[in-house]
Amino acid sequence: MAWRGMALALALLLPGGFAQAQTVPRTIHLIVGYPPGGVADVIARALAAKLSVQLGSTFVVENKAGASGTIGMDVVAKAAPDGSTLGFSAISPLVLNPHLVKSPFDPLKDIAPVASVMYSPVLLLATPATGTRDFASLLDDARARPGTVRWATSGQASIGHIVLEQLRAAAHVDITHIPYKGGGQQLNDALGGQFEILSTNAGPAVSAQIQSGGLRPLAVGAPARLAKLPAVPTLAELGFPAANLSSLFGVFAPAGTSPILIEKFNHEINQALASPELRERLLASDNVPTGGSAESFADEIATEFEDNGRIIKAANIQAD
User: Which of 101, 108, 251, 315 ranks highest by number of CB atoms within 10 Å?
Assistant: First the structure.
C-alpha cells in the first residue's frame, strides 16, 4: 500500500528515524475492551505473556470495558502512536457499533489493525422448548408457524442478531427475535426452555451444555466446521453464506503508529499464535487461532464494515 511505503521511506530518511521506528517500547499497555475473567480477557493475558517473553517488554493489561468494546478502542484511538499502547478487541466496535450509535472515534481512520488473533464461532442451538433436530427442521417450523419460533441473542444489533436477519431475508422466514443484555441470563433461560433457538458465541459453559444434551447444535457460523463438533455444518454449507458469521478478535494500534512497528508486532503475534501452548489455550476456550498480515486484517474489517452497514439499513435495526 502506498501510505505504508511512504511512511517507511520517511522513517529511513529522518535522522535516527530507522532505529527509532524499530524500537519496541520497554513497557506496553494492552487495552482489553472487556471485563476481567471473560474469555477475551483470558486470551489477551495469555497473548501478552507470550509477547512479553518474545519482545523482552513488560506488558501491562488494562481492562476498559463498556459499550460493547467501544470504550476500550477509544482509549487506543486517542493514545500516542509510539507502540506503547495496543488494544485487544473484537472488531465489532469498528464494523458494527458505529452503524448504530455515534462513535467517539473514526473506526476506519483512527485505529490501525495489527493482527487477527482468533475467531469465536457463533452457535445456533435448539433448546428444550423445541423438538427441532436439525437446521432444515428449524426452517420448516418457522414456515409452518410464522412468528412462533423465538430466537434469542445477546442483544439488539449483536452478531447473533445480524445472523438472524440474514437468515430471515435469505430463507424468507418469520422468526421472533428475543434480545438479551449479555449471555448469563440468556443461557439460563435457554436451559429453562424460555425460547426455541439460542445463538451465542462458543465457550466452555455452552460446550458443557452441548455435551450434557441440554442444548442441541443445529449449525455454526465459522469459516469451517469445529473440531469439537465435526458433525455440525456451517451456515455456508447449509446454503446461507451471508449468515455464516463469527466474532473476529485481534490486536490494534493507534493510527499513525510506525508501519515498521506494526510489522514487528504482527510478526511476533503470528509467532505467538504458532506456539503449541497458545494454540491449545485458544482451542480449549472454543476459539480458533487466525493470524495473517496486517493488510489482510484491515481488508476484512473494511469489508465487514460495508456489509454490516447494508444489513442494518435493510433490516432497519436500531440500537437498544
Answer: 251
